[in-house]
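Changelog note: in this version the structure field was regenerated for every chain. One regenerated record is shown below for reference.
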Amino acid sequence: MSGRPTIEIGLSAAVVAVERDAPEILVARSQDDLAALPAGPFDPRRRRTLEIALRASVAEQTALELGYVEQLYTFGDRGRVQSPDEVGPHTVSIGPAGRGSGAHAP
């Protein structure tokens, strides 16, 4: 193995709606049963684009089909997912915003 760092790409979706003049955020249950943004890894061998992977992750975790999707921000800071001194892959998180479609949107 070369000295190059391993990079993983994570996708986290912020799906927002306004209901009765109040914002609502779509959440899914994480592996430790906490409320979290729908999220998943980007594996280009499985799903060829970031958008396809994001839509699939949100649908699998929440049963919501996304309408409009736009990338908001990319986080690449060391220590954001792991502590700065941990070994292992470095995670780059891409944070798109989405809008649900249909009656089940948040």
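Spot check on this record: Residues 102-106 have pLDDT under 50 and may be disordered. Strands lie at 7-12, 14-19, 22-25, 28-29, 35-36, 39-41, 66-75, 90-100.
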